[in-house]
Amino acid sequence: MPLLSTADFWPLLVYALAVIGLITLMLGLSHALGAKRNDHATHEPYESGIVPTGNAHIRISVGYYLVAILFIIFDLEAVYLFAWAISVREAGLPGLIEASIFIGVLLVGLVYVGRLGALDWGPRPQKNLRERQ
C-alpha cells in the first residue's frame, strides 16, 4: 500500500476551508442584514397569516402516537424491501426465501396490531349500561 503524502491532502484542506468560509459568510451576512426589531409579534408563531388563538399545549390522544410509530416502523421495513428489490437477481432463491420470511413476519405483526385495535381510528363504541354492571 503506497504511503500518502501531505500533498494528497491539499484538496481536502482547501475544501474544508471553503466550507467553513462559506458558513461563516452566510451566518455573518444573515446577522448583519437581518431584522433588528424585537417586539411582541416577533416571538408569536406564524400560521399562514392566521392569528393564533388559544394555547398551543393541547392534549392529543395516545392512539395518534401509536399509529404514527407503527407507520414509521412499517415505512422503514419498506426501505429494506426496496434494497432487496434492487439486488433480487444477485440474491437468487435464498434471497427470495429470506424476503418471503421477512414479509411473513411483517404480516403477522400487522395482523397482531390490527387485532389489538391499534389501527382503529374511529371512536370506540360505548358498552351498554347493563353490560358494564
UniProtKB/TrEMBL annotation:
<comment type="function">
    <text>NDH-1 shuttles electrons from NADH, via FMN and iron-sulfur (Fe-S) centers, to quinones in the respiratory chain. The immediate electron acceptor for the enzyme in this species is believed to be ubiquinone. Couples the redox reaction to proton translocation (for every two electrons transferred, four hydrogen ions are translocated across the cytoplasmic membrane), and thus conserves the redox energy in a proton gradient.</text>
</comment>
<feature type="transmembrane region" description="Helical">
    <location>
        <begin position="62"/>
        <end position="86"/>
    </location>
</feature>
<dbReference type="GO" id="GO:0050136">
    <property type="term" value="F:NADH dehydrogenase (quinone) (non-electrogenic) activity"/>
</dbReference>
<feature type="transmembrane region" description="Helical">
    <location>
        <begin position="92"/>
        <end position="114"/>
    </location>
</feature>
<keyword id="KW-0874">Quinone</keyword>
<keyword id="KW-0812">Transmembrane</keyword>
<dbReference type="InterPro" id="IPR023043">
    <property type="entry name" value="NAD(P)H_OxRDtase_bac/plastid"/>
</dbReference>
<comment type="similarity">
    <text>Belongs to the complex I subunit 3 family.</text>
</comment>
<feature type="transmembrane region" description="Helical">
    <location>
        <begin position="12"/>
        <end position="33"/>
    </location>
</feature>
<dbReference type="InterPro" id="IPR000440">
    <property type="entry name" value="NADH_UbQ/plastoQ_OxRdtase_su3"/>
</dbReference>
<keyword id="KW-0472">Membrane</keyword>
<keyword id="KW-1133">Transmembrane helix</keyword>
<keyword id="KW-1278">Translocase</keyword>
<keyword id="KW-0560">Oxidoreductase</keyword>
<dbReference type="InterPro" id="IPR038430">
    <property type="entry name" value="NDAH_ubi_oxred_su3_sf"/>
</dbReference>
<keyword id="KW-1003">Cell membrane</keyword>
<comment type="subunit">
    <text>NDH-1 is composed of 14 different subunits. Subunits NuoA, H, J, K, L, M, N constitute the membrane sector of the complex.</text>
</comment>
<keyword id="KW-0813">Transport</keyword>
<dbReference type="Pfam" id="PF00507">
    <property type="entry name" value="Oxidored_q4"/>
</dbReference>
<keyword id="KW-0830">Ubiquinone</keyword>
<protein>
    <recommendedName>
        <fullName>NADH-quinone oxidoreductase subunit A</fullName>
        <ecNumber>7.1.1.-</ecNumber>
    </recommendedName>
</protein>
<keyword id="KW-0520">NAD</keyword>
